[in-house]
Amino acid sequence: MSTSARPLAVRLAASSDERLEALLRARGVRPDAPWNDFFDAAEWLLEPASIERTTSTLTRQEARDLQQAARGADAGASRSALIDLALLDDEGAVPPPVAAVVAERADVPDADPAVPPAASDAETASAAERASATVGALADLLLAARNTPLALVASGVLTAGERRRMAESGIETGTVDDLRALAVTAGLARADERVLVTTAAAEQWLASSFAVRWAVVTEAFRSGMPRGIRSGTGWIAPAAWSGAHPWDASWPQVAERLRREAQLLGLETPSGAEPVWAATLRAGDEADTAPLSALLPSEIDKVFLQNDLTAIAPGPLHPALDNRLRAMTQHDSAQASSYRFTAESVARALVDGETEASLTEFLSALSLTGLPQPLTYLLAQTAARHGLVRVAPYEGGGTRVTSADAGLLAAIEVDRGLRPLGLLREGDALITRVGAETVAWALSDGRYPATLVDADGAPVATARRHLAESPTRPHTSFAPLIARLREHHEVDSDAAWLDRELDAAVRARAVLEVEVAMPDGSSRALVLEASGLGGGRLRGRDRAADVERTLPVRSIRSVRVVTD
C-alpha cells in the first residue's frame, strides 16, 4: 500500500462535492466505481495505470511543468491545474507514485511560439478555392446522407461501399472521412447505430450561402479543438500542433488529421503559410468571410435550360436554389454546374411533393432561356403518369397498392426486386404488412409511378429525409459514489489508515515493526511476522522471542514494513 494514499485520502475527504466530481471526471473515473471509502479512491488515483492515462492528456506546458516539479522545481503556471488533477499535493509537491511515472517519460522541450508565415497571393487564392471545394463536397456528403444514411464501420469511418458511392459523386476518396469528421464536429451529422445521419441543423446549413456555411464549419472546428492546441479562444501555430500533447501516443495521428482538416477549410496552406482570414480566427476573433468571398465567384440565381434536358449554371448557384434543382435532376458533381432532367428525377420530385405547376413555375423563374419544349413535354408526361400506382395505408398497419393499369399491377406482383415487401394479391389490389411510405419509396426506386395517398385518397408528400433525433445523453452523476465515500469515511482517519495498513500487511504476510503503547505509558517496539487480523487484534510471531503474540490494535501507535 502506498504511503502517499493516506494524505490524498484525507485531502479528498476534505474537498467539496463539486471539486471531487470535477476531479473524478477529469481522471476518467466511472460513476459506478466499486470504492468503499476515500482510501480506495486515493489508491486508485495513485495506481501507475491511472497516472499514465492522466499524464497522457496533459498539454505540453503542463507536462513540462510537472516534469520540473518532479525534479524539485516549482510547477509554475500549471500548478493549479496539476493540483486539481491530483498529480500534485496541496503544497505543490509531486507524490512518489506520480514521480515514478514521470521519470519514465521523455523530456518535454519548450513550446515554439512562432507565428505562421503569411500566405502569398497565389497561396491565398489556392486556399480559397480549396475552402470552396470543401464546402461543396461537404454539402454533397450531407445531401447523400439526408436521403440515405451512410453506413459506418465499428471505428466510425465510412464503409468501402459508401466510399465508392461518394467517389462516384465526385468527392475525393482521401477526403471523405475528414469531411465526415467536419460534419460531426459542426453538428451537421452524427453517428447513429452504425450509420451517419444528418441533423436538423444541416437543413438550415444546406440552404445558407457559402460564407455562412464556411463560417459555421470553421468556428465549430475551432471550438472543438483539443485544449493542447488552443490559445485563449484561438489556436497556436499549426506547426506546433504535433507536440501539443507530448505524452499521448495517439496524438501525432490526431494532430495530422486536424492539420488536414485545417487545409481543407483553407486555414493553412500545404507549405504551412496562413491566409488572412485564418489569422483572424487563430487570434480568437469571429470569422471574417469578406477576404475569402472576394476571391470566389459570386453566387447566382439563374441557369440556362437547354433543349437536351440539361441545366447549366454559369457560376455557383445559390445553395437554396441548388438544393431544389438537385431534387428534380441528376446532378453531376464532377461538373458542378451541370444538371440533367430525366423521367426518374422528375418523378422523384413529384413524390417529394412537387407538382407539374410548381415545377413549371420554379424552372421558369430560374431560367435565363425560358422553358424549352422538350422539358415541358417531360414534365407533363411524367406528371400524367405519376399516380398511376397508388399506395395507401391498410388495416392493421399494412399497405394496399392499387392501379388503374392491371398490367402494371401484375408487373409489380412478379417483380423480383420487390419480393422483400411481401406483396400478396387480394382482389384488384396488392397488400403487405410493410409501412406505406416504405412501399412507396421501394416502388419509386423500382421506377414505378407510385404515389402515397392517405386513407381518403389525397396525395401525401414523402420527402425522403432521415434526420437524427436530438441525442439524449444520460447525465452521469457522481453524487451516489461521493455519498457512499462520505458515508464510509471514518471520523478517526488515523485509526482507519492503521486498519488498512495492518490488513494489507497480513494479506502480504509481511514483517512489521510495530510500536506498541504499554500500560505504564511507555512504548515498546516489536518485530512481528503478521499472520492475522480480527476482532480488533493483530496476531503475529515475535521474531526476537519466537512466540505468537496478539496485540490490541488500539494499542498500536505506528507500523512500518521491514524489508530484509
Map the helices and strands.
Elements (H helix, E strand, L loop, with lengths): L4 H10 L2 H10 L11 H8 L2 H8 L4 H11 L8 H6 L11 H8 L17 H27 L2 E2 L8 H9 L7 H10 L3 E3 L3 E4 L1 H7 L3 H14 L6 E2 L2 E2 L15 H14 L11 H7 L7 H4 L10 E2 L4 E3 L6 H8 L3 E2 L6 E3 L2 H9 L4 H11 L6 H13 L3 E6 L3 E6 L2 H9 L9 E3 L2 E4 L3 H10 L4 E3 L26 H9 L5 H16 L2 E7 L5 E12 L2 E6 L4 E6 L3 E6 L3
Parallel strand pairs: 10-14
Antiparallel strand pairs: 1-3, 2-3, 4-5, 6-7, 7-9, 8-9, 10-11, 11-13, 12-13, 15-16, 15-19, 16-17, 17-18
Describe this structure in words.
With 564 residues, the chain is α+β, with helices and mostly antiparallel strands. It has five domains: 5-103, no CATH class; 121-293, no CATH class; 304-382, no CATH class; 389-452, no CATH class; 490-561, SH3 type barrels. 42% of the residues lie in helices and 15% in strands. The chain has 23 helices and 19 strands. Strands 12-13-11-10-14 form a five-stranded mixed beta sheet. Strands 18-17-16-15-19 form a five-stranded antiparallel beta sheet. It has a four-stranded antiparallel beta sheet with strand order 6-7-9-8, with no helix packed on it.
Order of strands across the biggest sheet?
A: 12-13-11-10-14
Assembly context of the chains: single chain
The tally of helices reads 23
Major β-sheet profile: 5 strands, mixed
Structural domain tally = 5
**Model regions low in confidence, pLDDT < 50 over at least 5 residues:** none
Strand content: 5-15%
- Shape descriptor reads elongated
- The average pLDDT score comes to 86
- Count of β-strands: 19
Structural class by helix and strand composition: alpha+beta
Radius of gyration: 35 Å
* DSSP helix fraction: 40-55%
Gap between N and C termini: 18 Å
